Amino acid sequence: MPSDICNNTPLPRIISFSVNQLSGKISATIWKCRELEALFLSANHLNGSIPGEIGSLSKLSKLLMGLNDLEASGFDSFLFSNKKYFRDLYNKLTICNI
After folding, report:
1. Cβ pair 98, 75 in contact under 8 A
2. N- to C-terminal Cα separation, the chain
3. Is 35 helix (H, G, I), strand (E, B) or coil?
4. At the N or C end, where does the chain have fewer CB atoms within 10 A?
5. Distance CA 58, CA 60 (A)
6. Around 39, how many Cα atoms within 13 Å sit in the side-chain half-sphere?
7. Strands 62-64 and 38-40, how do they pair?
8. Is 58 exposed, middle or buried (0-12, 13-18, 19+ CB in 10 A)?
9. Which tens digits make up the pLDDT trace of 9-32?
């Protein structure tokens, strides 16, 4: 996922990159997408930790990240309970409150 996705475009409401063979980590700069309501990243090759900055996206209500190799260690479980639709299918998610 491009780290500058919300730098050069009008603030998107939906980002859908599912099934695009993306690899690497989700950029912490995702917080810049302040109008984001839905983030679909399923079925890629994303890895690493889910950035906590996603939790600052107050309008985000749909979050799909399944079929990746993502981890949520140290990630606030409050984020998951506040999303209307979260699917973690086939991820390695370990929810730990620190």
Report:
1. no
2. 27
3. coil
4. C
5. 6
6. 26
7. parallel
8. exposed
9. 768 999 999 999 999 999 888 889
Share of the chain above pLDDT 70, in %: 71
As given in the structure block, the two tokens for residue 55 are 């939790």
| Cα-based distances in Å from 52 to 10, 70, 87 | 23, 13, 17
CA 82 to chain CA mean position, Å: 14
Strands (E) in the chain, as ranges, are: 14-16, 23-24, 38-40, 45-49, 62-64, 69-71, 85-87
- Based on the number of CB atoms within 10 Å of its own CB, is 52 exposed (0-12), middle (13-18) or buried (19 or more)? middle
Kindly state the tokens that stand for 73.
């260690």
pTM: 0.78
N residues, the chain: 98
- Give 63-81 pLDDT, tens digit per residue: 888 888 888 755 555 455 5
